[in-house]
Amino acid sequence: MLPFRLFIIVCVTILVFPNSVFESQSDQEIEGSLTFASDRDGDLEIFVLNIDTNKTDQLTENSTADFSPDWSPDGTQIAYVSDGSGKNELYVMNNDGGKVTQITDSGIDVFCPSWSPDGTQIAFSGVTNNKSSIYFISPDGRNLQRITDPKTDASCPSWSPDGTQIVFTAVIDNNSEIYVLSLNSSENEVLQLTNNPSLDNEAKWSPDGNRILFYSIRDSSEDIFIYDIDSGSIVNVNDNEFIDYSPNWDSSGQFIVYTSIQNDNQDIYIQDLTSGEIIRVTDSPAYDGDADWWVDMNPDS
Q: Considering only CA atoms, which of 235, 184, 239 is closest in space to residue 206?
């Protein structure tokens, strides 16, 4: 399938949030950029918060829903989902909102895109006949392939740092658990990580490959948890009375970003896993969430 261009007018709006990450007193500097979805202009659009400048650019502005942004490994592009064609399709744009390209046009409802560490593939959840599978596709729209069994309801993929495994959610017997798929084995071996009667979802592999961050409803809370791969232990990292979900890592593995519902408002927060410090990043009456964090690991190159 050859990709085609979707020509839109991209409006860039500069915003400053009163409660910003620059109020952090953490020993380690917080840096990089957050891309996230927000409906502050009336429908879901994609935004980028530059932590270094404390400013936010609105990258999309249209009458459709744009959501689930995910940085390319080099930070030059953002994959996201939009329903502009009448179905959720995968798009890629430059990090300034330019050069928007529709990647999928297959009749599959797309969710949760995730770039491979080498930037050559994008994994995503694709729904057909009310069942979700995980697919791979090249950023140019070629080489679409399903990698999970169509009988398994699999979603929300996230790559291991070395690109050899995928962590994902699967619903089996009406129970949502976290699994790992090995891409190197001839039979795509699958290992179950969690075993919880309630929901486990939105798993994200840590930068060092040793931990998996995920959202769960357990212990009478809706919080963010970390699964330690070596020990199998599970720790609640922000045990509180709020609903905390949609977690992601920074590049160091010391910080996480997530969405929290507090006082009937959904905003983005950053937490230092070492100190426990929590910083509110956005302060909007609208929904802000679904954040992905990118840091330039080669600033002098």
A: 235
- Rounded mean pLDDT, 204-212: 97
Burial 125-134 (b: 16+ CB within 10 A, else e): bbbeeeebbb
Question: Rounded to an integer, what distance in angstroms lies between the CA atom of residue 109 and that of residue 111?
Answer: 7
pTM summary value: 0.89
Tens of pLDDT, residues 92-139: 999 999 999 999 998 899 999 999 999 999 999 999 988 999 999 999
| C-alpha pair distances (Å), 291 with each of 20, 67, 96, 258 | 15, 10, 16, 7
**What pLDDT, on a 0 to 100 scale, did the predictor assign at position 300?**
64
Dump the DSSP string for the chain.
---EE---PPP--EE--SS-GGG---SSPP-SEEEEEE-TTSS-EEEEEETTTTEEEE---SSS-EEEEEE-TTSSEEEEEE-TTSS-EEEEEETTS-S-EE---SSPEEEEEEE-TTSS-EEEEEEETTEEEEEEE-TTS---EE-S-TTSEEEEEEE-TTSSEEEEEEEETTEEEEEEEESSSTT--EEE----SS-EEEEEE-TTSSEEEEEEEETTEEEEEEEETTT--EEESS-SSSEEEEEEE-SSSSEEEEEEEETTEEEEEEEETTT--EEE----SS-EEEEEEE--S-TT-
Could you give all domains of the chain from N- to C-terminal order, each with its CATH number? 4-24+33-294 (2.120.10.30)
